[in-house]
Amino acid sequence: VPPVFKYKQLLGILERLNAGEIVIGDGGFVFALEKRGYVKAGPWTPEATVTHPEAGAQIVGVNCHFDPMTCVKAVKMMKEGVEKAGLKAQYMVQPLAYHTPDCNCQGFIDLPEFPFALEPRILTRWDMHQYAREAYNAGIRYIGGCCGYEPYHIRAVAEELAKERGFLPAASEKHGLWGSALEMHTKPWVRARARRDYWENIRPASGRPQCPSLSTPEGWGVTKGHSELVQHKEATSAQEMNRVLEMQKKAKSSA
Ligand SMILES: [Zn+2]
User: Fold this and answer.
1) pLDDT tens, position by position, 20-31
2) Annotated binding site for Zn(2+)
3) Of 164, 169, 191, 233, which is least surrounded by CB within 10 A?
């Protein structure tokens, strides 16, 4: 019987992971908050990155910029590196809730849809089940989400790992697992979808016949450390905007 984690006092993240808990990170779902008017773009918080295993980080992982399977793959490689160095760590993954197979090395920030037209790329809850399983099988025990995550995505992650964690999330009270509530649906063809293998094998269409399935990322050659990426204190002036548009023209014509 897997242990049930019910704490009387708050524990640190390392204490929880080292006790064998699978922690579900309820990500920032930044865009959801932005769209709802709760947050505005502002200065960036640089994310800590692990480049040398000998640095001895206690939790190693990646956050944001790429889709779940890509991020799990990255953490797997990091884990290999850490283990090769003869070290031990806990592993964390907090990917996007967007599919990004067409991204280059900078991730979704270079996609033309970034940041306000990414919705057609959103993972389904069933994709999230797959991701949670893949992350767990890779040995990752802090499994969360970043931009694009909605509460039902996090619930799907927690439901996939319910057996391992020993409990279902509280929000599972609101629906049936694997679409089982559809047993009550009035349409018989929808009732026929009240089963796991239907949703596990669905290949959802985007419904956008004029749209490509993949995009071409921008390639301005501007990356971390470049002077163009310094956070501005003031909003972009009209003059600056002209300069940026010129840069865009140049980047497009050289592409
Ligand atoms: Zn993010």
Assistant:
1) 999 998 665 455
2) 64, 146-147
3) 233
